[in-house]
What does this fold into?
Amino acid sequence: MFNTILLMQKEKRYIIQGSIIFAVFLGLYFLLDILNIGYTQMLNDYGIYLVIGNIILNIFMAFLSAFMWNVSTTLVKLTGKEGKGTFMSGFAVLFGMLTYGCTPCVIAFFSTIGITFAVAALPLAGLPYKLIALLLLVLGFFWLKYEANHVKCKIKNKN
It folds into this structure.
């Protein structure tokens, strides 16, 4: 089933949808980096490799999120039900907002629940937390792939 879903990704509808979703997620990930400390400060504090690494991670995470969105949409079209692994991309974005997102907002949020200045000590401009978000996305992708290959009501071949 997953191979059928991959073949359908070449359709114009999914290319346009994937491009739009990719742009939205990429903008969101870049916005989170800018609201955290910004690329200029990141460059001054940690060097060019961290900036390049963050940009590459943003591109990869946005692509994976958009691809999962398309796979989920195709799975719904073919089977009539959504895969459970798709919530991981939204959870990864929420995780990113709460950890390496806008520092003043996160400090205010954490202080309301009793954790004061927890994000003031985030190492490497939040890179470890971005890697955890990437891990969540990858786990969600494999979960979604497993669900696509093991759907309960598969489509019947026309042959």
Remarks:
- The chain has one domain: 2-149.
